[in-house]
Write a structure and sequence with these properties.
single chain, about 160 residues, alpha/beta
Length: about 160
């Protein structure tokens, strides 16, 4: 598709615009490859950073959108899903399924739809920030917009 010719950030921008959220992508020359770096650059609470974490669930990708201030409790999530063991995906697996490298994975803009879970603790924040496809870009979004554009299942992940 022509809209995907610009790379991962372009795909994220297109997904945001198509969904009605609008292009809220910001780029940082120094990079924001971690939640802590992003929170510092954005001058926001670390808990308002939305990490896009890809896991391997029985060979299929599972995207968990979680607060940057917490670790995902994979046994807890696996118990809720009742579908097998959740394993951290390799960088190659992440790139293959998202088209984005670890440290810059966005909740949207992937080649194909990925099953997505949304950490309910993120709803405590008026505005969230998520990776926009590379190590230098982030976008802003509300919890309800994020749930809507990802069609995520809300779940306590920690």
């Amino acid at each position: 598709m022509a809209e995907y010719d610009g790379g991962p950030v372009s795909r994220v921008r297109c997904a945001l615009v198509r969904s009605g959220v609008g292009d809220t992508v910001r780029t940082f020359p120094a990079g924001v490859p971690t939640a802590a770096a992003a929170a510092e650059a954005l001058e926001c609470d670390l808990a308002a950073i939305t990490n896009s974490l890809v896991f391997d669930l029985n060979g299929a990708p599972l995207l968990i959108l979680a607060s940057g201030a917490a670790r995902v409790d994979t046994p807890l999530v696996a118990g809720h899903l009742g579908e097998g063991r959740i394993r951290r995906a390799s960088p190659e697996f992440v790139l293959r399924h998202t088209g984005q490298a670890v440290g810059g994975v966005a909740p949207v803009g992937h080649p194909q739809k990925i099953r997505t879970l949304l950490d309910v603790s993120l709803q405590e924040h008026k505005l969230l920030w998520a990776g926009a496809g590379d190590h230098n870009s982030m976008f802003s979004i509300t919890y309800n917009e994020l749930r809507s554009i990802t069609n995520a299942q809300e779940l306590r992940v920690r």
